[in-house]
Amino acid sequence: MTDDVTVSGLGFLGWVADADDTAVGTCFQVEAGVLVTARHVLADAGAAGVGDAVRVAPIGGGPGREAVVVRVDEVHDLAVLTTGIPLPDSCVRLIVSDAVRDDEPVSIAGYPTVEDAGISYELLTSGGRWRGAVLRDRVLWSRLQADAVMPGMSGAPVLRAADRAVVGVVSGRYNSVDGWLAGAVWVARVEDLRPLLDGVARVEIEDDLPPGARLDVVLEVSDSRVRLSGAGEDVTAAHRGVSPGLVNALHDVRRERGRPRAVVRDDLGVVQSAPGVVSLRRAGELLAESFLPVAVAQALARLLHRAQRAHVPVRVGVEAPGRWALPWEALPDPVTGRPLVLHDLVSVYRRVPAAGSRSAPVAGPLRIVVAIASPEIGGGPLLDYERELGAVLDAVHSAHRSRAVVRIVPFATTTAIRAVLSEDTTHVLHLSAHGAPGLLHLEDEQGSARGVDAATFVREAVPEGRMPRVISLAACYTDAEGEDGAQSFAAQLAQHGAGAVIATQTSVTDVYATRLFARVYAELAGSGSPDVVAAVAQARRAVQHGFATGADAVAQAVAGMDEWSVVSVLAGAPTVSVVDGTASAVRRVETVPDLKGLLARPVGQFVGRRHAQRMLPGLLRGDGAAGVLLYGIGGIGKTTLAAELIRRLLDTTQDWQLVTVTGPVTVDGVLTAVAGAARRDLLRREELFGAAVVAVQAASRADLPWQDRLGLLREDVLSDTAILLVLDNFEDNLAPGTGRDWSITDPNLEGLLTAWLGSPGRSRLLITSRHPFAPDAAATGRLHAYQVPPLSLAETRKLMWSLPRLDRHATDPPARERVWRTVGGHPRALEYLDALLPGEQPATAGQARFADITQRLHNAVQDRLGPTESTTWLQQKRTLDAALADTVTLAADDVLLTEHLTRLTPIEDAVTTLAALSVYREPVDTSALLFHIGVPDPERADTPDRAETMAQVRDLLSRYRLDLNQIDEAAGPDSPLTPQDRTLLARLADEASRPPHPPFTAPAGLGGLIRQLSATSLITTLDDGRVVMHRWTATELHHRWNSPAGHHHQPALVTTAHHAAAAYWRWRVNAWPQDRAVDLHDLEEARHHLLAAGDPDTAGTITEYICSQLHDWGAWDHETSLIHDTLRWLPADSPRRPAWYHQLGILAQDRGDYPEAERRYQQSLTIDEELGNRADMATSYHQLGILAQDRGDYPEAERRYQQSLTIKEELGNRAGAATSYHQLGILAQDRGDYPEAERRYQQSLTIFEELGNRAGAATSYHQLGNLAYLAGDYPEAERRYQQSLTVKEELGNRAGAANSYHQLGILAQDRGDYPEAERRYQQSLTIFEELGNRAGAANSYHQLGILAQARGDYPEAERRYQQSLTIFEELGNRAGMAGSYHQLGILAQARGDYPEAERRYQQSLTLFEELGNQPSIATTISQLGNLRADMNDLAGAVPLHCQALAIRLSIGVPQAENNIARLRDLRTKLGDTNFSVAARTVFDERSFMTLIAILDQTG
Questions:
Q1: Which stretches are TPR repeats (predicted)?
Q2: Are residues 428 and 529 in the same domain?
Q3: Looking at the structure, do residues 119 and 84 belong to the same domain, yes or no?
Q4: Has residue 269 got a pLDDT over 50?
Q5: Of 1256, 1242, 1251, 1254, nearest in space to 1212 by CA
Q6: Which domain holds residue 169?
Q7: Is this prediction's pTM over 0.70?
Q8: Cα(1064)–Cα(999) distance, rounded to whole angstroms?
Q9: What pLDDT is stored for residue 268 in this prediction?
Q10: CA-closest candidate to residue 855, choices 819, 807, 809, 900
């Protein structure tokens, strides 16, 4: 034996020997005389039991000594020994194994057993890397990777290389035969050593937790045992089960909490006792006695000590299947005995592994959806909705101020909740309702309570992929088990994948729930990466502390109820992130329903008016009323409520056809609008014939008495079609009557509404008006009048959220209530008040002191109501009397609007700008304001020459073989353009997009003026910079400017503003880069302003232009409405009236309504004859001729043309005469008299050429081309078409050019040049589509179908015919529809589908017969004859060709020859006898003999 060797720094190491004094392992000293080793080392030494003696000695040499085994942990392979002779040194530090980072460098030093002949080893050091935790045979170990750990080193300490702290004890190495896990070393954890050293050594085991560390443990409760695992602890012990005392304690609490009792509230400062309420604190103590055995309690205590030393949070997840009914949140802290959930560092949650499986944190801002169930029938005591809404607003107010988005679901039905959840990702769903074990009492559509379980709720209310991250259940018993131990409602939600569920095990007071959720949502909204488990823990502590330290009786009462113990959080993990803090905040898309022009709020934003929302849709759906009248003071929200009612109706069924008419209306306007909606519905249902179609056509006919039109609609349309007629802003049609009554000014309109309400069928009326009215005594009971009430206090508070200055100043409940009362709960008045108050930026806000302005409002209420009534008013709670509210609102307006105008009057241009914006019907930009307050400056006018710019762009792109469709490619990174050309292209693009500038210079400070006016809330600046004024504000301002009694009397202000507005819209048409549809919109706005300014002549001229363009586009309903509106304001003796009647005739003729067309032409003609206006008489005769020709009445057509021609010649109107010659030529052509047709065309052409009328000459060239085409002279036809085309292109007549391209296509097709034909048709189609000429486009589609059919491409042919048919149906062009049906019949016949062919021909024939179009009737009957022949029904074909022949002979058209040829062929095939029998079914004997003579001549 050599001398002893001292090993520096390892004096705490020793070896353990067996009875033969042979080393079997290593040990180390943690305190003088206290040694640690592996338990299996002692077993190898034969001393594995407590009290056994074993030999130990220091490594490096020295005398051996005896040690005694004092503690053993067989599971974790650890043992503790004591000796009277300590080793030289002790370990410096012990640190829990969980604190070691993965891949941390470590070292192991021990007494190795090495087989090396002749050489002994007493110490071996091995380096390694820490590899973290291992769960082996349900026991938690640590692992490291080292290549030189040998037998004998078991029991050695694992030292962290950085500071030589002990972080584990070597248990063994993995011996792998196959090489897997080579070098792996199992390490017993320091956390498991801690209990062995407790009471033996005073060793401080450090946690060394990194910043942000958390101690996460799970308390698992099985049938017989409790296990606490995690954070270095893993302790299992038997529990005692539920004791009788615990059962009784829980029974007492639940019995007392379930009794009917007064709810403690603090909103009115009133305390009502809650007798017998028992705290769960005692139950929690009994629960600990049963389920926290000593070992588990000690482990939990150690955990809390560690947390306090490191000041890190402890998160305890309770997993107790079958025992969830126990109040785990009431467990006491084993150290102090105080409630564990109130410990500053502890979070307790109920661990549901499935929670979070269907939700994940997403980008902010935080979005909270709130649903309050307040059923009117069933479901226990009625939940006070207004109080609940107030409580919810309290709960989410802080979150809202932190930029959270809050949406209130109007009704807590599963359908309504689903609609709002579908809108966008929801972070928190807050449900306020009555609850019962396993159920939540929501509402159904009728307002009755509906109990739903969690599975039903998830299925019906949660869209796929939209599971909220957090569901808050502000209801009783939502975490109480259901019948037969079924899972609680909250547990089921967690099982269905909610990230976290906040629930209650018993009842809970409103006060506590409100404060708790308020704190939770404030925590969530105020954190970048909010964690709901931590938020509830913090809220639970803070709320209880607030109640416990509160001085008032309410706080003390609630504090004594210990309601912190009844709130539970169910989650799958100790952290449930609600918002993804790493993702950029996204702008939430608000879904705004399209309600035909009505102002609607985004889904989920409409709050309150629940009674109206519940009751009124039911009235409209049922038979109790024919209509609903929403009336109330301007700005109270009538239109918004109407939009919400409509949305609710459409949510229940999509059958409703919505018709909206706003402002002044007429009988014709109403019926035309309803007819348009009914027509679209019939087309969607493919009902193209029958009584309903006739009724719809009649409804638009102003010549028929409205009683007849309504009667037809009732019988054939309204009986089957659910039409909702909305008359918005109906006060424009009312006038004050006797007393306070209002009546309809137009007796016809009153009669229409009275009759409609008396028998509406499936239709319903929804009317908004500032004033109530009754159409007629008989209809009073059929029109349900509903006064839209002022906002309730809770609704007002919700609105205040969007009014930052008011929200900032009205900070306490009394201040909010005072504001609510003194403005009468009026939304717009609240905005006025908000604008008068100072904000955070005084330069852009009002300057009125809150106390001063509210006192003035208070005084105004007293002055208006009187002392007695005002006292009663100012003491109202939660809701206001609607009648008095109107009076109070008007008093408030006097104060607020007058204050605004007084402040703005000294500001240059402020009042003029207000007047300007008061007349516009839609938002406008600052260019509009220059027409009102700008300085005239012609040099500032700038209208970029876009045509020239785009020509340069096209030229530039063409050099690279690109077109305008490839401009993005040309400007992109891979552009083929040179750098210089790319720069040029960018400059041209900038020039093309440069907006024009009006001929005005903006006044200095215009932007500041707009900001200042916006701050008053009298106008609103939109996100795109445009500005707008609410209609009610405009009306109130107009009242003040027009009132001689006011201080702001300026009667000319509004008229001047209308003139300037008209000038602005007309400038836009001339200068702005926009399409023609927008041009027409702008012209209609100009027309409105001109009429308002008293300039009907200019308005009439603009109307003529608008109608002309609408007619070209086929927008015939719009054109008709404009004409009817024009006739309404035109004087009865106006010379303009005949022209408008004439145009109504043209519209009727275009739609195929020939009787109405004739009536209108006659109406126009009669007036012109009375006025002696021969020029216009000639126009009417001419149009009557065209109508007769369309009907096939050629003699009448010729008579009318001659009447027209005679007058024109007498007046010397050569151009008009040329037009008549032209039309007489077309008539001769249709008759087959081609020489006469050519003579007439030449007459027309000669005059046009002499007059230099190139457009007229082009028309003649075109018609001469048609004539040549019919004669088979294709070269002459092409020459004429080209002549016509050249002139039209030179004149810029694109529509005319399109017709020429079309005809050239037909010519090419007949020549067999199909590619050229298709090219020409496409040229024509492109122009028609660009012009918006839908009728022309339909003709092009039709011809492309004929071309495809000629090529044999039947699917393409059918597609084109359908395209054409669809347009004709939408236009109501019955002649065009009939042509499409006919062609579809030919296609079906070519395919051999004879039944379909016959169906289509019959459709066509029915329309042509209704139109009285004789030539087309003959064509279709003739085609039916051909079909019969193809079907080998020769006898059936004969009568059809006979009918067609008779018609064609009577009108004198050349197509009769076709029938003669067919009949001759049929006679040959059938024989004389059979042919005679078939023909005599049509002809009498004389006619039959005439037929035989004709056939013999042709034969």
A1: 1138-1171, 1178-1211, 1218-1251, 1258-1291, 1298-1331, 1338-1371, 1378-1411
A2: yes
A3: yes
A4: no
A5: 1251
A6: 13-206
A7: no
A8: 11
A9: 33
A10: 819
